[in-house]
Amino acid sequence: IEAVTKNKNNKEALVKLEKIQKELSDLSKQKNQSDELYASLKAEAELKETELKKSETKSNTMSSDISIIDNEVKGLEKDLVNESDNSIKENIKAQIKELSSELELKNKELETNNQKINTLKNEVATVNKEIEISAKIMNEKTTVAASNNGAIDNTEGAIVTNTSNTNNTNITNSSAYENITEKYKNETLTTP
Q1: Which of 2, 6, 143, 186 fits as disulfide partner to 157, beta carbons 3.0 to 4.6 Å?
Q2: Closest Cα to residue 26, out of 162, 184, 182, 170?
Q3: Rounded Cα distance, 126 and 89, in Å
Q4: Nearest to 39, CA basis, from 181, 134, 143
């Protein structure tokens, strides 16, 4: 501000200073939006990973339950072969039938849970890729923005600005955005 007041071209320098401050403000807003997106993606990834871990634990428990039921059925089948009393045989057959139904139900639940696990793994991979791309884009936007901004010289009264006109800057920003979009277009994963 002191440089503006000491400069002979106060109005021109003031306009340039306001323009630079506006650009910095816009960049700050863009950075905040990018940070919010990045944080949102990180939170989504953590939720998906937590859900995935719960599903994997559930799958392991179900597999253990299936193994226990299967062993009970095998033990009852041995008892059935060795039993001579018909009433006891009927009771054993009923137990085997009940356990077999339960075993079939558990296997279906396990299959459904395993499909859920595969879906969650794909979703986690997708969100992690989005996080990676978001971070790359944020870094590239920062680099592009830094190359398009003017700078204030520390010498008394001197203001150095980007000498290209506003249209060129807008075209450069637009081109940079399009280049970034095109660059990462093929890297994004689509979910069914």
Answers
A1: 6
A2: 170
A3: 55
A4: 134
